[in-house]
Design a protein that fits this description.
It contains 19 helices and 18 strands. The protein is α/β, with parallel strands linked by helices. Pathway: Glycan biosynthesis; glycogen biosynthesis.
């Protein structure tokens, strides 16, 4: 099967969030299963100098129309890990950041139009798999393609949807405003890219079973997107839990940690990694209590105030907390952290430090109010670090509370429980000091978090689509 993954980002070339991890690790998994997989994404300015091999791989050049305007596009290609990566070079993406610009809807309309032209010129794909609002208009455009192509849209975060005006249908996509007037792409008083993709793709999915159920049952959140899916595409919608790139995240071989370990040496490994991270951050290297951690965007969605609620109680349980994160609540979080000697905040994302923190920690805090899938809980369990999570989205699908007996691999609490995270913290501390976490660490470290099963689930999804 020839599969084209269409995305705004992918490791190792450009990453803003979990989508970048998803594309690269899923693509590698497909290649290992023998599929012919390609990725197409924009060529961002920093990539030109950081990855010079891209500019050596010229592949194609063409023009396309956006209403009265003519846009040129160059395409470059490199092969890596069994994946063919295609990069569209256009002036709108000659910027330092991936997203966050006032003209993002126009920028990604340009990208989608370029991809549509590319597919028309190289018309041999069986499946075109789109991801999030940035690429959600492509299934509608491909419906005009003379060759039938299966289309899938994966919604990684329904909070981001891509808003434009009625006239932009013609200005950006050369489409009739009838799509807006009929309500097909309209949400409220705006043209909505994500809705267009939901209405047009052959199949739609999100990145966990629980999050799919949450969307179908919540008809008011995310601008009513759940209601649209429930009423219009219920039987074409599903949830598939993300896998984890176990080549990158493996405590036995991880080059970023101070001491490698496996299940038989987890205690010694964690002690060595604790000492290493404490030394690196200027903390007490002789500390021998429970270490809690979080690697997160400091935002309300991620439950930052729940993490803050733990801070006053660290000293009484002889515990420490290290957080790596930035975001809109950074100043508030820092102000609270400064009050307590047992809290350390790293205000940047540092890949090597993140690996070391997963390996050093005993418990990982992920008290999100909303989490479509999440991979941090999978990483933490693989490293023998017990996650503390709210029962939402992919967290609910992958983490099972200590009360669940043989399958227990962490601590969970109800999302609507105001004191749930704090109570889970106390339960974790008590179990730690009672030497009762060994079995849960074993369950977590023995879990299969690889992409193999999830990749097969996507292939099965592709195969449920009838040829048009």
């Amino acid at each position: 099967m020839k599969i084209l993954l269409v995305t705004g980002e992918s490791l190792p070339y450009a990453k803003s969030g979990g989508l970048g991890d998803f594309i690269y690790s899923y693509g590698k998994a497909l290649a290992k299963l023998g599929e012919d997989v390609s990725v197409i994404m924009p060529l961002y300015l920093p990539m030109r100098s950081k990855f010079p091999e891209i500019m050596e791989g010229f592949y194609d050049q063409f023009d396309f129309k956006m209403s009265w305007r003519t846009q040129g596009c160059g395409v470059f290609m490199v092969e890596r890990d069994g994946i063919k990566f295609y990069f569209t070079a256009m002036d709108r993406f000659d910027r330092d950041q991936l997203y966050g610009y006032g003209d993002d809807t126009e920028r990604f309309a340009c990208f989608v139009m370029a991809v549509n032209t590319f597919i028309t010129r190289h018309n041999d794909y069986d499946v075109v798999h789109c991801n999030d609002w940035q690429t959600a208009m492509l299934p509608l455009l491909l419906s005009y393609n003379p060759k039938p192509i299966k289309t899938v849209l994966t919604i990684h975060n329904p909070a981001y949807q891509g808003w434009a005006t009625r006239d932009d249908l013609g200005t950006f996509f050369n489409l009739s405003t009838g799509y807006y007037d009929s309500g097909f792409v309209r949400l409220g008083d705006s043209f909505n890219y994500l809705k267009a993709g939901i209405m047009s793709a052959d199949k739609i999915n999100t990145v966990s079973v629980t999050h799919a159920q949450e969307l179908l049952s919540d008809h008011t959140g995310f601008g009513g997107m759940g209601a649209i899916i429930d009423w219009c595409r219920h039987y074409d919608f599903s949830g598939i839990v993300n896998g984890l790139d176990t080549d990158i995240w493996d405590p036995k071989t991880d080059k970023h940690i101070a001491a490698n370990y496996d299940l038989s040496s987890v205690k010694e490994g964690k002690r060595a990694n604790k000492r290493a991270i404490f030394k690196q951050l200027g903390m007490d290297e002789d500390f021998d209590g429970p270490l809690f951690s979080a690697i997160t965007r400091l935002s309300a969605q991620k439950g930052v105030e729940r993490i803050i609620s733990i801070m006053p109680h660290l000293e009484e349980k002889n515990a420490k907390l290290i957080v790596i994160g930035t975001g809109e609540m950074e100043e508030q979080f820092q102000a609270e952290a400064f009050k307590y000697k047992n809290v350390y905040l790293v205000k940047r994302y540092d890949e090597e430090l993140a690996h070391l923190l997963y390996a050093a920690s005993d418990f990982f805090l992920m008290p999100s109010y909303f989490e479509p899938c999440g991979t941090s809980q999978l990483i933490s369990m693989r490293y023998g670090t017990l996650p503390i999570v709210s029962n939402v989205g992919g967290l609910n699908d992958t983490v099972f509370d200590v009360t669940k007996g043989d399958i227990a691999n962490g601590f969970t609490f109800y999302n609507n429980d105001y004191f749930g995270c704090l109570n889970a913290y106390f339960r974790a501390c008590d179990l730690y000091w009672a030497h009762g976490i060994d079995h849960m660490q074993e369950v977590g470290m023995k879990g299969d978090y690889s992409w193999k099963k999830s990749a097969q689930a996507y292939l099965d999804l592709y195969n449920t689509i009838d040829w048009k």
